[in-house]
From TrEMBL:
<dbReference type="GO" id="GO:0046306">
    <property type="term" value="P:alkanesulfonate catabolic process"/>
</dbReference>
<dbReference type="InterPro" id="IPR050172">
    <property type="entry name" value="SsuD_RutA_monooxygenase"/>
</dbReference>
<dbReference type="GO" id="GO:0008726">
    <property type="term" value="F:alkanesulfonate monooxygenase activity"/>
</dbReference>
<dbReference type="InterPro" id="IPR011251">
    <property type="entry name" value="Luciferase-like_dom"/>
</dbReference>
<dbReference type="InterPro" id="IPR036661">
    <property type="entry name" value="Luciferase-like_sf"/>
</dbReference>
<keyword id="KW-0288">FMN</keyword>
<keyword id="KW-0503">Monooxygenase</keyword>
<dbReference type="Pfam" id="PF00296">
    <property type="entry name" value="Bac_luciferase"/>
</dbReference>
<feature type="region of interest" description="Disordered">
    <location>
        <begin position="159"/>
        <end position="179"/>
    </location>
</feature>
<dbReference type="InterPro" id="IPR019921">
    <property type="entry name" value="Lucif-like_OxRdtase_Rv2161c"/>
</dbReference>
<keyword id="KW-0285">Flavoprotein</keyword>
<feature type="domain" description="Luciferase-like">
    <location>
        <begin position="10"/>
        <end position="272"/>
    </location>
</feature>
<protein>
    <submittedName>
        <fullName>TIGR03619 family F420-dependent LLM class oxidoreductase</fullName>
        <ecNumber>1.-.-.-</ecNumber>
    </submittedName>
</protein>
<keyword id="KW-0560">Oxidoreductase</keyword>
Length: 303
């Protein structure tokens, strides 16, 4: 099992965001196989939809967020081996050509280590903040996937006339270091998103929430949605075995390193998932050194 960790990008690390390079460098030395970022632009004081799609609050840890492209670029510059992932980048917020430029740049400067994880998010307030209609999120994601595929794999890039963006036939470089393109993973929680992943993605991004003393069933959380997407992929004429998964392990406050490691090991033993990462968002309340200590302890327990 490849095991990665989130970069210090949110919340309690607000006063130490300049430590991203230090964390990335040292986590790779400890054995982290990947480093990950998320995507937030605001935390509404009175949200239309609370975190996770329910309730009326957003965790305070999301009150501050370092730009994901900045964080990954810094990590790319100070590491050599760790994959650099987005889980998830809220693709409908971005003009497709500018998104292609940013992601290609990260793949090029890291010598082919980008893992592009995309989703549509859950916050209508953030869509309002970036000036994108909430109801267009699915269509904009689909169009952006079209543009990325074209920009990454064609030269020249064909003219595009879509519902939300248009551009002429053009030379657009550089191309990604990975051929034919970086792997694309999609969130796949709703039926429509699973159908999209079956048609278009290299894999999906399930989430395992780790609560103190809580139960975890890898068959329900990981194997069932992955099997469903693979069956759908087969109906699309794709090789179902080519659809993979990267598990995000999302520990709640108070979850222990042993409980986190147990989720990782149970996933390894019960599924064919070969890559997971731990989101440290709710576990770190002091410093980058605390994050590195947790990283080392979890790596040791999960080996």
């Amino acid at each position: 099992m490849r095991l990665g960790f989130s970069l210090p990008q949110f919340g309690s690390m607000e006063q130490q965001l300049d430590q991203v390079a230090h964390y990335a460098r040292e986590a790779e030395k400890l054995g982290a196989a990947s480093l990950w970022v998320g995507d937030r632009v605001l935390a509404a004081v009175q949200p239309a939809v609370g975190y996770g799609g329910s309730g009326d609050t957003i965790p305070w840890q999301m009150n501050a967020a370092l730009d994901p492209f900045v964080a990954l670029s810094v990590a790319a510059a100070v590491t050599e081996r760790a994959l650099l992932g987005t889980n998830t980048l809220i693709v409908p917020w971005y003009p497709p050509l500018l998104l292609a430029r940013s992601l290609t740049g990260i793949d090029v400067v890291s010598r082919g280590r980008l893992v592009a994880g995309f989703g549509t998010g859950w916050s209508p307030d953030e869509y309002e903040g970036v000036g994108v209609p909430w109801k267009e999120r699915g269509a904009r994601l689909d169009e952006c996937l079209d543009v990325l595929e074209s920009v990454w794999t064609s030269d020249p890039v064909a003219r595009h006339d879509g519902p939300h963006t248009s551009f002429p036939e053009a030379r657009i470089g550089p191309k990604p270091a990975q051929r034919p393109r970086p792997p694309v993973y999609l969130s796949a929680f709703a039926p429509a998103s699973r159908r999209r992943a079956a048609r278009r993605a290299d894999g999906i991004l399930p989430v395992a929430v780790v609560t103190p003393g809580g139960a975890y069933d890898p068959a329900e959380v990981v194997a069932a949605p992955l099997d469903q997407v693979r069956r759908l992929a087969e109906t699309e004429g794709r090789d179902p075995s080519a659809v993979r998964a990267i598990l995000r392990v999302n520990p709640a406050q108070g979850a222990t390193p042993q409980e986190i490691a147990d989720v990782i090991l149970r996933t390894r033993d019960a599924t064919d998932v070969e890559h997971a990462f731990v989101d440290l968002l709710y576990l770190v309340d002091q410093s980058t050194e605390q994050a590195l200590d947790l990283t080392g302890r979890i790596l040791d327990l999960a080996r």
